[in-house]
Amino acid sequence: MIKTSIKKVIFLILAFLSFFILSAFTNRNSDNNKNKISSETEMCIECHKIYTPGIVTSWEQSRHSKTTPSEGLQKQKLERRISNDNIEENLLNNIVGCYECHSLNKNNHKDNFEHNGFEINVIVSPEDCKTCHLNEVNEYNISKKSYAYHNLESNPVYSLLVNTIISNKTFKNDIIENTKPSDETRSVTCFGCHGLEIVVNGSKKIETKLGDMEIPNLKNWPNQGVGRINPDGSRGSCTACHPRHSFSIEIARKPYTCAQCHLEPDVPAWEVYKESKHGNIFSSNESKYNWDSVPIKAGVDFPTPTCAYCHNSLIVNNENEIIANRSHDFGARLWVRIFGLIYTHPQPKTGKTFEIINKDKLPLPATFNNEIAKEYLIDSLEINKRKELMASICNNCHSSTWTKNHFAKFDITNYETDNLIKTSTKLMQKIWDKKIQNNKNPFDETIEQEWIKGWLFYANSIRYSVAMTGSYDYASFKNGWWNLTNNIGLLKEKLLLKK
Amino acid sequence: MIKTSIKKVIFLILAFLSFFILSAFTNRNSDNNKNKISSETEMCIECHKIYTPGIVTSWEQSRHSKTTPSEGLQKQKLERRISNDNIEENLLNNIVGCYECHSLNKNNHKDNFEHNGFEINVIVSPEDCKTCHLNEVNEYNISKKSYAYHNLESNPVYSLLVNTIISNKTFKNDIIENTKPSDETRSVTCFGCHGLEIVVNGSKKIETKLGDMEIPNLKNWPNQGVGRINPDGSRGSCTACHPRHSFSIEIARKPYTCAQCHLEPDVPAWEVYKESKHGNIFSSNESKYNWDSVPIKAGVDFPTPTCAYCHNSLIVNNENEIIANRSHDFGARLWVRIFGLIYTHPQPKTGKTFEIINKDKLPLPATFNNEIAKEYLIDSLEINKRKELMASICNNCHSSTWTKNHFAKFDITNYETDNLIKTSTKLMQKIWDKKIQNNKNPFDETIEQEWIKGWLFYANSIRYSVAMTGSYDYASFKNGWWNLTNNIGLLKEKLLLKK
Amino acid sequence: MIKTSIKKVIFLILAFLSFFILSAFTNRNSDNNKNKISSETEMCIECHKIYTPGIVTSWEQSRHSKTTPSEGLQKQKLERRISNDNIEENLLNNIVGCYECHSLNKNNHKDNFEHNGFEINVIVSPEDCKTCHLNEVNEYNISKKSYAYHNLESNPVYSLLVNTIISNKTFKNDIIENTKPSDETRSVTCFGCHGLEIVVNGSKKIETKLGDMEIPNLKNWPNQGVGRINPDGSRGSCTACHPRHSFSIEIARKPYTCAQCHLEPDVPAWEVYKESKHGNIFSSNESKYNWDSVPIKAGVDFPTPTCAYCHNSLIVNNENEIIANRSHDFGARLWVRIFGLIYTHPQPKTGKTFEIINKDKLPLPATFNNEIAKEYLIDSLEINKRKELMASICNNCHSSTWTKNHFAKFDITNYETDNLIKTSTKLMQKIWDKKIQNNKNPFDETIEQEWIKGWLFYANSIRYSVAMTGSYDYASFKNGWWNLTNNIGLLKEKLLLKK
Count of CB atoms within 10 A of residue B12's CB? Predict the structure, then answer.
């Protein structure tokens, strides 16, 4: 009797140890999953683990390599990472491998080509990701981000600014000649973030280790800008934030990702966050955040908010009641637009900001005199709704008075910085009026560039700093009040020079 | 016999395993501690875990939630984190919860209010923290930090600089009118770090999920500046460095915290540290430091020094002999003041720098000609004492010659940068003398702002860089010699313009 | 029978547990290693763990304290960290301790001194490290880095720039007098990174806790610049990247180390990397890299490349075939030089750039009109060889088209930025020609400094950004096209001023 029970105990101990040891040393792709790899994906991997092992390793570490859409759909509603209940039968029970993504919607893909017996799309577009991530792509499709290319390229004011900056300048016969920016330079400056149109110009032959191959000849490739126009006509590039083949939610949620584009001096979100109390705690405790949890429990999973937390993550309270829905329309929770333009203004109603026309007939949401183009912008009802949603996020850690006072400071900062910019704009206008400088191109003279720095760099840095509850030195001396004060002084001196 | 011993062995194994498993999975707030929560704090938490879960979670992760003052006092002297041996009986045996801190010294707290049956202070002040952390608050109370608000607001020279920078500027009738900075803007710029006076203006009614509430109506709230004037009359805000409700020593010790205020361009401590060898090793090995150890064993717990390590932590050697005592008077180990003023000078004798008057009758520690106001500054005896203390910290990892030579470089850098600033100040003086610019306000013209950049940004960046054993590129090109050279050139050109 | 087998099982479990527990808690310096410490090193440690415990702790955590050269040599070729097969018998079987390194090649060391009965070198030089790390030092010896001191000091153009920037400037009799930079300032600015010559000026007596000591009197010490001239005549300082006494490969491989010198504004490698996709993934996943693995498996050990990965690490594929050999000649994989000079140009053939003379008789690789000094620079054959090697690294994660297009963008960026700088240089030349400014010293007037900013800060920032696959905002607004456009405008205005 005793012997039997001893054996039992020993067995249990051994089983327990085995489980621990096995789960620690076992290959992450268990046999269980291997069975679920499609035969097509298996063939992809066979070659690519030799020729591009980095991609394969990256994918192997991804959730895609370990789960099937069917398993994803079985999760609790709030924990689901996919949002299409009607995924096609043939995709449901395979893990999400190379072929599952690179073979979708072939007929729409001008970049589809015959590749060792398979029909493969070079680029996986949001329209393809939509197969499983339906809501996310639909949200994204109405966002300003998804129109980031158009909002630059189709807005003649912005286009002029872009072309003034990144044009080639040659000195000939005492004159500086500007020539059009090259496609290559466009792709590695403004349109690196905003995205470009990937055009398929037939095909070309390349030499590979496996012999010659015929592949699509893509113009503007590679490009991962958020408003990329894909060969299937869709807009956007999911990989901009969920990079490479890990498609990591952790990376997308970390501020480093947003920081690739939202940066000093024109959009100093990252610098300002880093210097705020929220950012300080993030930097100190980064390893203690539950980066992968879906949904995020307010005040629990994330000790302090990050970019994604406030702007687009699904947040619930301790009772699993939704505080804020996930949204991939990244401006959806915002009421005021604080950067990129001369004055602050209510968020535009749609993502297509290039369609806005103000009273001066300029494609800008406010005139030089700060009269806003109301009909294109959200109204006070919507403004208040968004403010309340954002407050409900703050209030999980802060008293309602704290939040209210914080928002009041932000309102006043926007008002004051707009007022300062009105001052510098009036000075600029006088400089133009007095023909001290001509305004044919309002962006190409050094004094005009001073004026631009006022609204494009300094005023919005101040606003950013206050929006993120304070990176005080930044707003005072780094790129804020100090600079704006000096900036107005420079404009004044230029004006007085020819009084 | 054998069976018995087998049973024993099995029992031991099981016990061993149980211990490991239990200690891994057990809730951090053991039942043991729960018994020690005061009934008041329990009631606080009951509501606040619903309404502000972030605060509660933060506190639950704190040491305060897991220990009682009595337990804290039982530690070895050097390991103690509290310094008052005479804590009141009624506080000794409860863990340090909401009510324990928010109900102290009610009679002094103008922000005390009736809150669901309890008398609660909105703000916990250093005077309250002093209940347990007696020495720390006493040290803090004599520091420059604790006078950070006064040192700006009560110094007319600094006040003028502040008001020049953060005033509103309106362009009317060809003149730029300056209007006084708003309270809100003060709170999110200079006084965000320096602190403001929190004034209680009666009470106000707010709507909450639990119905209307009457709460104190606080002006300048929220503010966590280091020189904040609290509703009980005390100075300072412990949460500035030990943020929110975790009161973390780890966060306070990480340079990210200091970096919220000590930043480029005027106080580039963080930038310069990050680029130094000490900072490089910190960035590379951050996870290997013993962030929580009290005391810090020199050269063991911290592979390289951080801000706190050199400036205020308790450091002992391998024999547990004290190398440097803990101090919350953050300037106590420093002998020379290298930023914020025109010239370097010995540290002031007290924290109240606004009381200094130099020979030119200006509230500055040196005249424009660099004659120092000796009577307000520490003498050479004290200077040497502090140098020796700091050297004794360096010498745990560096040879005494290394340290001596390092200090010599620092002395020479201070001498040379002072000399360069004397050059730029002479140029500025000539510009004023020749009426090229008037000096009614020495801060409001663009050429004056160039002069300011010389001493406020560039000279002190060079000094910081050398103090931290070298961020060489920073001192050369980023914000140092290159800029100072160019700066002197600009002043010279302005002067020559009207020769 | 059963009892016996039970005992066996229990024994096995206990042995298993013991192994786990022991290996977890055992001191890292096992007794095994202690036996291998030389008696000399043991004596060093006995004192130094009292007087400089930081150094000893650092060394104890190093690989040097845990392994003997003999053990290092027994590793598989690719896994070896030492490269000398003929290490002297007397060094082979001791762990690499204080005495093993600080007593080498005594006769060459002018800094050798009698130290408590031992003959000790203050400085361990690359020539000493070469004892085991033969190939690494040989590679280093031909690199530009190893000539970093000479390349600045022995190049009169650069010397003039250095002396213009870091000289003392005194204002006397309406003239600004420049006086020679001090040794101390040289050591904490340009030559902090580039290195200085450590000169032994006899000896001096110092007081220590153990009584007076006679030590070598070193000029320019401490200095860890990469081109340091050591007292044994060798060039370089291994500790610049493998800092202090941990000699860590992990630290050397992390970009923070390179970032100490390769920084904004003149060499913004770090800033640009951090903002690239590679850098974003590094920041997000830093803890998941196999920092210590030798060799590095491409696309597996490092999810994204770091500085060391692309520039000098040994990289193999999944079949352990070498993709790129380790090299401590850090420019060996590079074909184009993009910083520090007026125009881009092919990499120099040797590390001694101070020997280059162009057609204008200036010690620069290109004339002001961008005619390159071909005979000193690598030819197209070598350029293509290096491009292909680098491409073979990229291609582990990227398609060959991706890589090809990336390189094409880089080529065009170099061409366009050179063209822009030609424009600004022509403008500068005209300013000199018209005597608006004299060019006796081409670096000392503010407008000349604008011109310098064009090529030293902005053009190369753009190139860096593109080289690292894009930190787009940086190249657009931070330190790139925006600034270069404005910069050309400023030069034009200066020229027009006196038309």
Answer: 11
B441-448 LR contacts (CB < 8 Å, sep 24+): B441/B160, B441/B164, B443/B160, B443/B161, B443/B164, B443/B165, B444/A489, B444/B164, B445/A489, B446/A486, B446/A489, B446/A490, B446/A493, B447/B490, B447/B491, B447/B494
Beta carbons of C488 and A224 less than 8 Å apart:
no
Containing H/E element for B111? none
Question: DSSP code of A229?
Answer: B
pLDDT of residue B495: 93
Domain end position, chosen among B219, B239, B259: B239
C-alpha distance from C402 to closest chain A C-alpha (Å): 6
Test the A interface: residue of B152, B171, B458 with most A CBs within 10 Å? B171
Count contacts between B and C (CB, < 8 Å): 167
Banded model confidence at residue A28, pLDDT cuts 50, 70, 90: very low
- Flag whether A105 is in a domain: no
Distance CA B455, CA B461 (A): 9
Whether residue B318 and residue C13 make contact (CB cut-off 8 A), yes or no, is: no
Same structural domain, A181 and A208: yes
How close is the nearest chain B Cα to the Cα of C186, in Å?
A: 10
Are the C-beta atoms of C166 and C190 separated by less than 8 Å?
Answer: yes
Note whether A290 and A255 are same-domain residues: yes
Query: How remote is the C-alpha of C334 from its chain's centroid?
Result: 15
Enclosing domain of residue A267: 246-331
- Tell me the helix, strand and coil percentages in chain A, rounded to 5: 50, 10, 40
> Rounded to 5 degrees, what angle do the CA atoms B285, B288, B289 make?
100
Mean pLDDT of chain C: 93
Mean pLDDT of A393-398: 96
C229 forms beta bridges with C197, C235
Q: Give this prediction's pTM.
A: 0.92
Residue A70 CA: distances (Å) to CA of A73, A84, A136, A293: 5, 11, 18, 20
State the number of CA atoms in the 13 A half-sphere of B128 facing the CB. Answer: 27
In order, the DSSP letters of A293-332 are -SSEETTTT-SS--HHHHHT--EE-TT--EEE---SSTTT
Residue C410 included in any domain = yes
- Does the pLDDT at position B364 exceed 80? yes
Beta strands in B65-189, from DSSP E residues, in sequence order: 112-115, 118-121, 168-172, 175-179
- C400:A166 CB<8 A: no
- What is the C-alpha separation between B69 and B75, in angstroms, rounded? 10
Pull the structure tokens for residue C389. Answer: 């090697």
A130 and A150 belong to one structural domain: yes
pLDDT tens sequence across B141-200: 999 999 999 999 999 999 999 999 999 999 988 889 999 999 999 999 999 999 999 999
Closest-CA distance, C307 to chain A, in angstroms, reads 17
Assign residue C323 a region (left: φ > 0; alpha: ψ between -120 and 50; beta: otherwise): alpha
**Chain C neighbors of B284, CB-CB under 8 A:** 248, 250-251, 254, 256-257
* Count of domains for chain B: 2
**C31-63, pLDDT tens digit by residue?**
455 569 999 999 999 999 999 999 999 999 999
At residue A100, what are phi and psi to the nearest 5 degrees? -55, -35
Other Cβ atoms less than 10 A from the Cβ of C83: the count is 18
The CA distance from A202 to B200, in Å, is 73
Residues A255 and A204 grouped into a single domain: no
Q: Domain boundary residue among A264, A296, A331?
A: A331
- Reported as a single tens digit per residue, the pLDDT across C407-451 is 999 999 999 999 999 999 999 999 999 999 899 999 999 999 999
* Complex ipTM: 0.92
What percent of chain B stands above pLDDT 90? 89
Contacts of C12 (CB under 8 A, 6+ apart): none
